[in-house]
Amino acid sequence: MAEPAGPVLVVIPTYQERENLAPIVKRVHASVPEADVLVVDDGSPDGTGELADELAAADERIRVLHRTEKAGLGAAYVAGFALALEGPYHVVVEMDADGSHAPEDLPELLEALESDGGADLVLGSRYVPGGRVVNWPAHRQLLSRGANLYARLALGAPVKDITGGFRAFRRQVLEDLDITTVASTGYCFQVDMAWRAQQAGFRIREVPITFTERELGASKMSVEVMAEALWRIAGWGVSHRLRHVRRALARA
């Protein structure tokens, strides 16, 4: 495997993930021992933040960012990315704390940043050849595939799994996209970031991963999260097509 082109930070947002946190961090370091981990905890009432502090005290590769309230996945990642950009990191990874993203797939994501000409953003994909989903009921798979199809049609994006949240960014992507302007708070944050990267001309590559439904804790998906994704993606798609129409009229 090609070595990462510089220090790697894995950003893991948490809210009530006390049961999952220590095992997932251990697996990250078993897969990529040189990586640092940043836990971004949104004031978990179950003691996740306190456990993260204990892990950080025992291992200098672990850092913790405490936030005072649950403000959404996107806001947690933006806070984590901002802290990453204050440090020496060349690669920033995002992944869930619940075990749905296998840290054992992380070396493949990092390798894709360097191999075959390299990429700027690597997406762990459930829906490219070799990718798979484990232990999801049929309705969840239908919902996920439908959301990806909706996003591809609305935006004209060629990405097969634009809603997935297991990703590796080159530092330049986060610097150039101006993450301070990202307003998406729920899972449409993933679509937002990939869409911005595509529009900016960054090289995006998908690599297959195995996505496994969580065994412990509760999912953070809600009707409000899905509604935000629907209306934001529709708005981005309309704006994109209007820009194309204006350009065509200007050339006419």
Summarize the structure.
With 252 residues, the chain is α/β, with parallel strands linked by helices. Helices cover 44% and strands 17% of the residues.
Task: List the keywords.
two-stranded parallel sheet, 17% strand, globular
Number of helices: 8
What structural class do you assign from the helix and strand content? alpha/beta
Order of helices and strands: EHEHEHEHEEHEHHEEH
Strand content: 15-25%
| Low-confidence regions | none
- Residue-averaged pLDDT: 87
Q: Roughly how many Å is the radius of gyration?
A: 18 Å
- Span between N and C termini? 51 Å
Q: Strand order of the main beta sheet, please?
A: 3-2-1-4-7-5-8
Major sheet: size, sense and barrel closure? 7 strands, mixed
Q: Which range best describes the helical content: under 10%, 10-25%, 25-40%, 40-55%, 55-70% or over 70%? A: 40-55%
Q: How many distinct beta strands? A: 9
Shape: globular
What does this structure look like?
The chain is α/β, with parallel strands linked by helices. Helices cover 44% and strands 17% of the residues. It contains eight helices and nine strands. It has helices at residues 18-31, 48-58, 73-85, 106-112, 138-155, 171-176, 188-199, 223-251, and strands at residues 8-14, 36-41, 62-66, 91-94, 121-125, 132-134, 167-170, 204-208, 210-212. The strands form two sheets. Strands 3-2-1-4-7-5-8 form a seven-stranded mixed beta sheet, sandwiched between helices. A two-stranded parallel sheet has the order 6-9. Helix 1 links the parallel strand 1 and strand 2. Helix 1 (18-31) runs parallel beside helix 2.
